[in-house]
Each structure stands twice: as C-alpha cells, then as structure tokens.
Amino acid sequence: MDECEAACDRVGIMAGGQFRCLGPVCHLLNCYGPGSTLVLNMNGRPDCEQIDDHSVDSVVNQLLPQSTRLRSYKGSYEYQIDKNLSWAAIVTTVEQLKAVLGTEDVWLSPATLEHVFAKFMATDRQNEDSAAPDASG
Question: Which InterPro entries does the UniProt record give (predicted)?
Fold first, then answer.
C-alpha cells in the first residue's frame, strides 16, 4: 500500500465486491482514516514483568480519553487515537505518557491507506456476519 500512496494521485477501494470510495490519498485518509496509532513498548523497563494491562490502560485513558486499545502482547500496547485530536495535542500527551509510564520506546503513526482498507474490510465482514442466516434453525 505504501507504493500506492507514493505512486498514485487517485485511489479506489473495493470491498465485498462493491466500489466503496475513490479520490486522492489525502482525501481518503481524512474521510475514512481511523486516526493515529500509538504503540507503547514497556519491555525496556526493569519492572516490565509486573506491569499489567489495566494500569497501562488507566494511565493512557486518563491522558488520552479519545483512545481505544487495539491489542496488547507481552508488554507492547497498541492504541487507536481519535482522528479529531490535533497532532500537537497528541505529541504533547505522548511526552506526558512517556514520563508517567517510564518508557522511551514509543511509536506514533498517522493513518495509512492500509488502515483505511482494513476498516472497509472489517465493516464488510461485520455486515456479512449480521446478514448470515442463523444455523440453529
């Protein structure tokens, strides 16, 4: 998808056999992008074995109430940040998170075309699941 973002001035996305959107990449990201992604890696901390999901979530939710945890695995936590929050506010808050949580291993990324495509595919899968007939009879 990175090549597509770099090489194309207009992109179309099809999901579930239906044409969903067409436009410049920046327009698709603004309209359909889910927001920024924040990854916190707590493995560099000496007490990383004692850190639980709830404590990290409570700190992140206190400082970034517009975020949702997507997944966590062995000390790495990934959050989706609301797209309506400004980059300045996000970066300031990430600096606060680093200080409070005691980690320097932080990754912050804007929405990509891959995120937009995955969002359409997830919506399509949900629609298929809800439209599927009940197998119990």
Answer: ABCA
